[in-house]
């Protein structure tokens, strides 16, 4: 398609015409965002799969064996962090109750219909684990029995038992339905990505991880986007991948899309870089607060600065876990069995409570809420209670010892010893300023290959709070002009970015985290143009549409025949022109 067309066509026309056969995939630890580039927003689906199992003894969650117990030292650090936060927010310390709270709170069970309970307080329902076809045939049989008015009660009972025994379990269940399966059912829940990496462990092999990823994505393509396998060669895929992914993981994702899912061609973009274009910017410090990992990267003039990448091992799910710990400590949580590690439906409930009630503001912050209990196969029980200290959990972003992230072992180090690099060894090259969409060296080494680390080592996680991480990330650029620009161009993405009060708290704490000898006196978080959860996905859609058919794309046949050597020294030819098109599209 000619450049003249791009200059004259309306943005909506370009997205509609060129995005209808372009699938944008943005995988995360907890959710995967997939949709056609022509859509306004993607499907946002929990990144998990539950498979039917006959194994005895049975684990209903694959990762439950990996969870570590909180040590006494961690518990003391958590309590210390709570008191530091309490002094900042001007609320009572952890073991200091306000006078009005001297007596235990009354907590009652709520049954029946209450018109004052709005939709956010409605309980989740257990997933039907039986195949729909079997259920529908059973219903037909049941209706026939009713019309025939069987005179023999014993015969009627026998026929019902027969129908129950004929029911067939679904082989696998994906997305939110997988999280709502009762622990009593014979299923095991798998999460193929955890803490920003493929979730490989002694209990979960690489082959099984990749097979689960394939099944989840294939299910979404068929059930949500209605793209059958035999038509996928007519579609192209844009992979918007987190900076946490390592070399080998990127290659496995490309193989999954091109070989496993049979897309005709594919291209890879960094999540941070796509986020900048998704908001119509060219320079920003992108802070992506995901469910399990927070990643930071600076972008200058449409090019990533790889030395600025930082990863923090916490996210929104850790805030939800902290919410539960806080309420239990204050004895505001009902006497129910809430276990987010073995009952994923409880994590769904806690995420919902966090999104509804948690915010950052000074003073005591309480709310009356309905908490639900989920026991094996039984309907949800509702418990009305007054939750307290709701402004404390999100402050854990700045004081991460409050969150105490569960420790999951990283993939085996030998798994990263990948001598068959995507293209060339970056440590033999001299890094210069990026001049394309990828953080390339002057010679055109694509993507993460130009990072000044060895591909055989997992990326290092920072042990600091969010404000210090942002300050360190921006100051590592080493130039005062770009530093001033970036401190005034902080971009928050991810669902946690929607937390009320987070922006002002972040601006204040980042300013205080800058060393006094630095000539920086202004910090600003830019407002997002759309739901921050979907910004990187949208950026990937825009980049894919404006660059469809160019040299950076990898064809399926080439990848299968030549593997990683495909695309060597490829880069975007008219990168600044395409960047200008993206700005034109977003600003129109």
UniProtKB/TrEMBL annotation:
InterPro entries: Actin, ATPase_NBD
Transmembrane segments: none
Gene3D superfamilies documented for this protein: 3.30.420.40, Actin, Chain A, domain 4
Region annotated Disordered, chain positions: 141-160
Superkingdom of the source species: Eukaryota
Pfam families recorded: Actin
Ranges of Basic and acidic residues composition bias in the record: 142-160
Record family assignment: Belongs to the actin family. ARP8 subfamily.
Stated name of the protein: Actin-related protein 9
């Amino acid at each position: 398609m000619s450049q003249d067309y791009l200059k004259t066509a309306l943005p909506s026309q370009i997205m509609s015409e060129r995005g209808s056969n372009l699938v944008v995939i943005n995988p995360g630890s907890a959710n995967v965002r997939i949709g056609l580039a022509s859509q306004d927003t993607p499907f946002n689906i929990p990144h998990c799969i539950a498979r039917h199992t006959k194994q005895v003894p049975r684990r209903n969650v694959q990762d439950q064996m990996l969870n570590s117990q909180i040590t006494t030292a961690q518990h003391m650090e958590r309590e210390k962090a709570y008191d530091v936060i309490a002094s900042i927010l001007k609320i009572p310390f952890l073991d200091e109750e306000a006078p009005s709270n001297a007596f235990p709170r009354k907590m009652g069970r709520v049954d029946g219909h209450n018109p004052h309970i709005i939709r956010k307080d409605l309980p989740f329902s257990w997933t039907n684990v039986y195949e729909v076809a079997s259920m529908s045939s059973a219903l037909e049989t049941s209706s026939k029995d009713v019309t025939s008015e069987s005179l023999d009660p014993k015969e009627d009972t026998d026929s019902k038992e027969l129908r129950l025994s004929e029911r067939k379990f679904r082989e696998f269940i994906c997305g939110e339905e997988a999280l709502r399966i009762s622990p009593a059912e014979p299923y095991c829940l798998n999460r193929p990505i955890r803490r920003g990496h493929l979730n490989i462990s002694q209990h979960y092999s690489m082959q099984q991880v990749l097979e689960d990823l394939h099944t989840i994505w294939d299910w979404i393509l068929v059930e949500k986007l209605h793209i059958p396998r035999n038509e996928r060669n007519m579609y192209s895929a844009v992979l918007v991948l987190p900076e946490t992914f390592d070399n080998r993981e990127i290659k496995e994702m490309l193989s999954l899309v091109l070989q496993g899912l049979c897309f005709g061609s594919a291209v890879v973009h960094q999540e941070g870089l796509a986020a900048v274009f998704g908001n119509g910017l060219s320079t920003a410090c992108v802070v992506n607060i995901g469910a399990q990992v927070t990643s930071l990267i600076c972008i200058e003039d449409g090019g990533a600065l790889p030395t600025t990448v930082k990863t923090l091992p916490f996210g929104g799910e850790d805030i939800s876990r902290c919410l539960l710990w806080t309420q239990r400590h204050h004895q505001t949580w009902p006497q129910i069995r809430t276990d987010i590690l073995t009952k994923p439906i409880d994590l769904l409930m806690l995420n919902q409570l966090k999104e509804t009630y948690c915010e950052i503001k000074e003073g005591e912050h309480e709310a009356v809420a309905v908490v639900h209990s989920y026991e094996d196969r039984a309907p949800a029980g509702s418990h009305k209670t007054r939750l307290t200290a709701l402004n404390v959990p999100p402050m854990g972003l700045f004081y991460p010892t409050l969150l105490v992230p569960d420790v999951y072992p990283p993939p085996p180090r030998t798994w990263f010893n990948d001598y068959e690099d995507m293209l060339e060894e970056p440590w033999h090259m001299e890094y210069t300023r990026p001049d394309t969409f990828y953080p390339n060296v002057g010679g055109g080494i694509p993507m993460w290959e130009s990072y000044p680390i060895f591909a055989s080592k997992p990326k290092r996680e920072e042990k600091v709070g969010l404000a210090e991480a942002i300050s360190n990330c921006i100051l590592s650029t080493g130039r005062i002009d770009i530093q001033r620009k970036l401190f005034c161009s902080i971009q928050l993405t991810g669902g946690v970015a929607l937390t009320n009060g987070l922006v002002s708290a972040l601006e204040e704490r980042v300013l205080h985290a800058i060393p006094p000898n630095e000539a920086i006196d202004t910090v600003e978080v830019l407002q997002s143009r759309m739901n921050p959860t979907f910004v990187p996905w949208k950026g990937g859609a825009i980049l894919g549409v404006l660059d469809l058919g160019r040299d950076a794309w990898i064809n399926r046949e080439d990848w299968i025949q030549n593997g990683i050597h495909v695309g060597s020294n490829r880069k975007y030819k008219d990168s600044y022109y395409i960047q200008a098109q993206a700005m034109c599209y977003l600003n129109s």
